[in-house]
């Protein structure tokens, strides 16, 4: 089982994400944004948190047009798994692999704190290890995590059971308290909170390890 | 040839930064400011050529990169 962790200039959670994959038994390979192809035998792509390209233009906008992202989109279109966390979620939206946009937090402040989430759908290779409605704690660390989508898109996400996580207490103004969503084929997950920062008791909690274990389990079956 | 692209949040999309600017203006004593929307201006220096073609090209740039049409609208001026 191998994961490609994409590294953009300004990524800062790439190594944490690699540690989380490795702890779950998925061997990470770091891939530079200028590469045009993923290494052979990649089962899942991880788009890490950070401030790719200094958040210039819009968060994730430049990263989503980088050479490697064409390969990531092709991987997703083949049914490959993609996990985008924080800036990675912003990249997934800018690349149109997931619907909607992330705007400046409603309170305008950068938010950095543990956050209680409620698990939405458990019908995905990322969330199958949780109970629907369970409360989990992942840290958030973002300035632009205010999820926006038009009412039709929100209704579709709801109707297709594609909301993976909701904030128990909305910190940033996100529509529908949405913290994370999955793609139509359920193989792409984007979320603002950081499960890779909750995989070891030293980090204050291990709820995130459940997500990575589910990914490893899904890859093992496949 | 110069192209100027104005990018604004679409009507109906809440602009928290514009709201913060509106509050700050009120705090400075400027009354009667009923709304503030904050956007971006992007200037492009283009090689001289056909104006209509340039506009069509800048439109494609807006759709592909310069604006996020989920939340933003854009307006192009060619000078």
UniProtKB/TrEMBL annotation, chain A:
Its main location: cytoplasm. It holds the Pfam family GATase_5. This is Phosphoribosylformylglycinamidine synthase subunit PurQ. Part of the phosphoribosylformylglycinamidine synthase complex involved in the purines biosynthetic pathway. Catalyzes the ATP-dependent conversion of formylglycinamide ribonucleotide (FGAR) and glutamine to yield formylglycinamidine ribonucleotide (FGAM) and glutamate. The FGAM synthase complex is composed of three subunits. PurQ produces an ammonia molecule by converting glutamine to glutamate. PurL transfers the ammonia molecule to FGAR to form FGAM in an ATP-dependent manner. It comes from Meridianimarinicoccus roseus. SUPFAM superfamilies: Class I glutamine amidotransferase-like. SMART domains: GATase_5. GO terms for molecular function: ATP binding; glutaminase activity; phosphoribosylformylglycinamidine synthase activity. It catalyses: L-glutamine + H2O = L-glutamate + NH4(+); N(2)-formyl-N(1)-(5-phospho-beta-D-ribosyl)glycinamide + L-glutamine + ATP + H2O = 2-formamido-N(1)-(5-O-phospho-beta-D-ribosyl)acetamidine + L-glutamate + ADP + phosphate + H(+). The keyword Cytoplasm applies. Pathway: Purine metabolism; IMP biosynthesis via de novo pathway; 5-amino-1-(5-phospho-D-ribosyl)imidazole from N(2)-formyl-N(1)-(5-phospho-D-ribosyl)glycinamide: step 1/2. Its EC number is 6.3.5.3, 3.5.1.2. GO terms for cellular component: cytoplasm. Keywords: ATP-binding, Cytoplasm, Glutamine amidotransferase, Hydrolase, Ligase, Nucleotide-binding, Purine biosynthesis. The active site is at residues 86, 194, 196. CDD domains: GATase1_FGAR_AT. It is found in: Cytoplasm. Part of the FGAM synthase complex composed of 1 PurL, 1 PurQ and 2 PurS subunits. One of its GO terms (biological process) is 'de novo' IMP biosynthetic process. The keyword ATP-binding applies.
TrEMBL record, chain B:
One of its GO terms (molecular function) is phosphoribosylformylglycinamidine synthase activity. It is found in: Cytoplasm. GO terms for cellular component: cytoplasm. It is an enzyme of class 6 (ligase). Its main location: cytoplasm. It holds the Pfam family PurS. It catalyses: N(2)-formyl-N(1)-(5-phospho-beta-D-ribosyl)glycinamide + L-glutamine + ATP + H2O = 2-formamido-N(1)-(5-O-phospho-beta-D-ribosyl)acetamidine + L-glutamate + ADP + phosphate + H(+). Keywords: ATP-binding, Cytoplasm, Ligase, Nucleotide-binding, Purine biosynthesis. Pathway: Purine metabolism; IMP biosynthesis via de novo pathway; 5-amino-1-(5-phospho-D-ribosyl)imidazole from N(2)-formyl-N(1)-(5-phospho-D-ribosyl)glycinamide: step 1/2. GO terms for biological process: 'de novo' IMP biosynthetic process. InterPro entries: PurS, PurS-like_sf. Belongs to the PurS family. HAMAP family: PurS. Part of the FGAM synthase complex composed of 1 PurL, 1 PurQ and 2 PurS subunits. Part of the phosphoribosylformylglycinamidine synthase complex involved in the purines biosynthetic pathway. Catalyzes the ATP-dependent conversion of formylglycinamide ribonucleotide (FGAR) and glutamine to yield formylglycinamidine ribonucleotide (FGAM) and glutamate. The FGAM synthase complex is composed of three subunits. PurQ produces an ammonia molecule by converting glutamine to glutamate. PurL transfers the ammonia molecule to FGAR to form FGAM in an ATP-dependent manner. This is Phosphoribosylformylglycinamidine synthase subunit PurS. It comes from Meridianimarinicoccus roseus. The gene is purS.
